[in-house]
Specification:
By secondary structure, this protein is an alpha+beta fold. 39% of the residues lie in helices and 37% in strands.
């Protein structure tokens, strides 16, 4: 009985270690998500460059009101940077009360997932650790936001 209990406890500890995440990793993933949304909101290309990998992929669906359907389109990292630069050049400020929410779903040793909710919609984000730094690799989004919970 003691042997079985010991094996069970060791197995549970091993599984916990496999899926465990450090507080530091969670903080770094949160910072990457915030840099991403703030980069767009503030027109801060330094934040985008700090959080989005060079080879990132972003794909999203926006609602064409006239057609009454969603249309999908890709956005390259360069297009993300250009968008942020346009925000800065035109001195667009995020209106007070505009939603800026991040959620972390999971952080493992090499990959993480989360969600960003912004004025344009909801972005589901996959991150990876590149050279010991958390970077956004893939984003799939849909807008506009129907309801936010």
């Amino acid at each position: 009985m003691k042997k079985r209990f010991f094996i069970t406890v060791c197995s549970m500890l091993s599984l916990t270690a496999i899926f465990a995440q450090s507080d530091q990793d969670r903080k770094e993933v949160e910072r990457a998500l915030l840099d991403y949304i703030e980069g767009f909101y503030e027109g801060d290309t330094l934040k985008l460059n700090r959080s989005v990998a060079d080879s990132s992929v972003k794909y999203g669906y926006w609602k064409d009101v006239k057609a009454g359907k969603y249309i999908g389109e890709p956005m390259s990292r360069q297009q993300m940077t250009d968008y942020a630069l346009n925000v800065k050049v035109k001195n667009r400020q995020r209106p007070a009360g505009t939603i800026k929410k991040t959620e972390i779903f999971e952080v493992q040793e090499q990959v993480a997932s989360g969600k960003v909710t912004a004025w344009w919609g909801m972005d589901y984000v996959l991150l990876e650790k590149i050279h010991n730094k958390w970077m956004i690799r893939m984003v799939l989004w849909q807008g506009p936001i129907a309801t936010v919970k």
